[in-house]
Amino acid sequence: MAIIISFPGAALYYAVYAVPPLFLLYLALNYYYNSLNIFPGPFWAHLTDIWRCIDVKGRRPELTHIALHRKYGDIVRLGPRTLSFADPKATKVIYGLNKGFTKSEFYPVQMTVSKGEPLPSLFSTLDESFHANLRRSVNHAFSMSSLVQYEPMVDETTEIFLDQTSRLFADGATVCDFARWLQFFAFDVIGSITYSKRHGFIEKNEDIDGIVSSLANIFDYSGPIGQMPWLDKLFWKNPIFDLLQKLGLSDNSHPVAIFAKHRMEERVSAKVDITGSKDDLLTMFLKAGEARPDFMTNKRVLTMAVSMAFAGSETTAISIASVFYYLLKNPECMTRVKQELDAAVDNGTIVNRPTGLVSWTESRQLPYLDACIKEAFRMHPAVGLPLERVVPASGVEISGHFIRGGTIVGCSPWVIHRREDIFGSDADVYNPDRWLTAPPDQIKAMDGMMLQFGAGSRTCIGKNISLMEIYKIVPSFLRRFEVCSLCFLREANIRDADLFG
Ligand code: HEM
């Protein structure tokens, strides 16, 4: 006997009646996920990640997070699976070595794709054993002893930067978009350290191959999408796009990757013997490849080189910009830095070079400059989001609560850096003197809570390189130029994208 049913009608019937309860069930599951409903936070954050995606899209999530912690306390629920911690002790658990935490799905959103294949980097990989292996292979390239060989490359780029600043902007009439100018500087420094070849931003005073803007686009994309990482599988790492790339029908290689590929081809085709040569990061990575050819393949060498620009340019530019920003906003601090510099030249601590260049060794002997830079790092860490980690399956106790496996937890450098119990009751104020006048125990505690370079096994590998850049460019620039806010840092001109990463 035949039964005739009208399928579209039945589907509609089920949809009308089934979808609303299923949707409510989905929201309820989100609300009670891992018993996170006991933690306070914005109402919508309990139900959906859309809330934090919109917040990040608004470009100032760090201010939201500070305000939320001031309102709700040390633990705030930022999403159905996500908790933000402001408790200093939580940083030791979440980023402590061998605690079993892994990076969250936020990170692979920033992973580049080549010919349809994602390229996990030191920064973006979630695989801890791959990470440990890769970090071991390249660690030497970032050691203090290797740094010495990069300093001349930084010097050369810094001198060109100073000369170009003089040529282009020192007439007193031309206004310089300093945040952008510093991006050019940071990219060219990374280019010279990585490949012994600058991209040429400074010389040309233009965004070569649109590198700066395309990187800005990646950050604009990965910030909000990283809050709902599954969207990345639709918008970027979509299997259809991957297939088109594999078939050669589309190519969305980033200009930094194209630049890196050319440099790598030059090296490989020149068949230069790199053994024993003192050289740039690419050479160091190639040497790591020679030492472990099974692991450090040419593709991984290339990925390492590309990730230098991704991880090390914008972050450094933001940090340098914030040092200048706070010095300009606090003229008494600017005056003291300059007095310290002049005195150091007079007493021979700094060599009086015609270019104004200050060496790294020299600038580390300037305590007030050091305090100003540290304070800028504290007030304006380059990373404006919590450094997300996933709780291991067994669960873990954080800040007196048992947090179940799979929960995303993290601390934002912005939130931690404003703790009054660590940094003092004036934690919201730029006050370099805190690094000079606080009792030694407090200074130690403050140092231990600075998260601008992250913490634990995934801490910034390029920290020393960026410190070298910052501790050189700031005093060298101030020795050479008289700067005022009208010239380059009018508060209204500082676009979020440039300064508030
Ligand atoms: C002032 C400048 C810089 C700041 C503020 C900064 C900040 C950070 C932070 C916060 C992390 C940890 C991210 C996390 O745990 O989620 C990180 C990781 C990383 N940074 Fe930096 N960075 C800077 C400069 C650089 C430079 C110059 C390079 C390369 C030459 C670099 C390469 C990396 C890499 C490869 C990682 C991943 C390390 C790992 O997971 O093992 N960074 N950085």
Automatic annotation (TrEMBL):
Family assignment from sequence similarity: Belongs to the cytochrome P450 family.
Membrane-crossing segments per the record: 12-33, 301-328
Species assigned in the record: Penicillium freii
Residues annotated as binding heme: C460
Single GO MF annotation: heme binding
UniProt entry keywords in alphabetical sequence: Heme, Iron, Membrane, Metal-binding, Monooxygenase, Oxidoreductase, Transmembrane, Transmembrane helix
Cofactor(s) in the UniProt record: heme
Protein name (record): Cytochrome P450
GO terms under biological process: mycotoxin biosynthetic process
